[in-house]
Design brief:
Low-confidence stretches: 1-24, 352-363
Structural class: mainly beta
Helix content: under 10%
Largest sheet: 10 strands, antiparallel
Shape: elongated
Mean pLDDT: 77
Number of domains: 4
Length: 363
């Protein structure tokens, strides 16, 4: 083939120190990439039509502002300038049709599978399986090699499918999904840190909705360096060590609201409905199916409303019947005529026709 060139014409732009491709040799050869040097931005190639190859071939990009690095084994189409220097013109897909099939059949690895791209669509895929797909209907899909994805539809719907969803900004951190906690494995040197999944005895992963609100913002976008002002967890409560937190009734805590340490407020509900509230100083307030309890200074005292009402009504009945409270012999309670009647407390049923804010009233 001829190796002659021509001078650039009016309106034509030079290609680096070379003229445009119209002035290059009219040859096209195919090659396989044999090595990649990302520091220099060059590759080595071996020819497919004849023994031999080239070294330090400058990487070409598909478009201005778009940067990609090919993998070893990629097939490329190469052109040549007037001094026989090689330029990569295009990357050639391998087994394009076959990679639309089912990877479980063993023809290729799952990360090498391709979407069936239709006319007018755009599709990008990394070697690890991450994808950007813009379909003909105007939808956009961004997916990871593990299968998690974001989908933005033409109907203004943003859909996410993943194990865990995490948002972090100046206000704090919101995490929703499978519970993970950092774990240091001391069996290895150096110690390995793993963000492990916390599971129950049936090997099922716990899930949580966890909101941590910072007290103030800082100058770093996307991080909250100040201490948490409020932390809210809905789902089985797991501490920083990966342990399940239980209530005083030894049931898993499913709702937890707490403020920062110098305030010390904490509100909890376990899976059986027991409510526990702790305030600064150690005072605790507990409500379960049987009673209401207050603990202060380490001493717990029951507060039973039904007993209080019964005692009050017995007192009222005795007083209204005799005009006085029963007293020890020889102690006067005064004439009945000058003492008004007392009113008992009546507990009202909590039904749909009686929804007052107080569940009792006086007659």
């Amino acid at each position: 083939m001829s190796g002659g060139g021509r001078a650039p014409q009016a309106g034509e732009r030079p290609f680096g120190n070379l003229v445009d491709f119209a002035s290059t040799n009219d040859r096209l050869r195919f090659a396989r990439i044999t090595d990649v040097d990302t520091d220099k931005g060059v590759v080595g190639i071996s020819w497919l039509d004849h023994p031999g190859g080239r070294v330090e071939v400058i990487l070409s990009q598909p478009s201005w502002g778009f940067f990609t690095v090919p993998t070893v084994g990629s097939i490329v189409a190469c052109g040549f300038d007037t001094v026989d220097r090689t330029t990569i013109l295009r990357y050639i897909p391998i087994a394009y049709k076959a990679r639309h099939g089912d990877p479980s059949e063993g023809a290729f690895e799952p990360q090498d599978a391709l979407r069936e791209v239709k006319e007018g669509e755009h599709f990008l895929k990394s070697i690890a399986g991450a994808e950007v797909y813009m379909d003909v209907n105007g939808n956009i899909v961004l997916s990871s090699g593990a299968g998690s994805y974001w989908k933005i539809t033409l109907e203004d719907l943003i859909q996410q499918n993943s194990e865990t969803w995490k948002v972090q900004n100046e206000a704090g951190t919101l995490t929703m999904g499978i519970v993970r906690r950092l774990y240091e494995d001391t069996d290895f040197t150096p110690v390995q840190v793993d963000n492990r999944i916390i599971k129950n005895g049936s090997d099922e992963a716990y899930v949580e909705y966890r909101l941590r609100v910072a007290e103030t913002a800082d100058a770093s976008v996307g991080t909250a360096s100040t201490p948490d002002l409020v932390e809210i967890t809905v789902g089985t409560l797991i501490d920083s060590e990966g342990n399940v937190t239980q209530s005083t009734n030894e049931n898993n805590v499913t709702i937890d609201i707490r403020t920062k340490n110098d305030v010390g407020f904490q509100f909890r509900v376990d899976r059986d409905g027991q409510v526990e509230m702790t305030v600064k100083g150690g005072s605790e307030f507990t409500i379960d199916a049987d009673k209401v309890k207050i603990t202060q200074g380490g001493e717990e005292q029951a507060v039973v409303l039904s007993d209080f009402i019964d005692d009050h009504n017995n007192f009222v009945s005795d007083f209204n019947q005799h005009g006085h409270v029963s007293a020890a012999p020889g102690v006067s309670t005064g004439p009945p005529s000058v003492i008004p009647s007392l009113v008992p407390i009546v507990v009202l049923p909590a039904d749909k026709d009686n929804r007052s804010s107080d569940n009792f009233e006086t007659e």
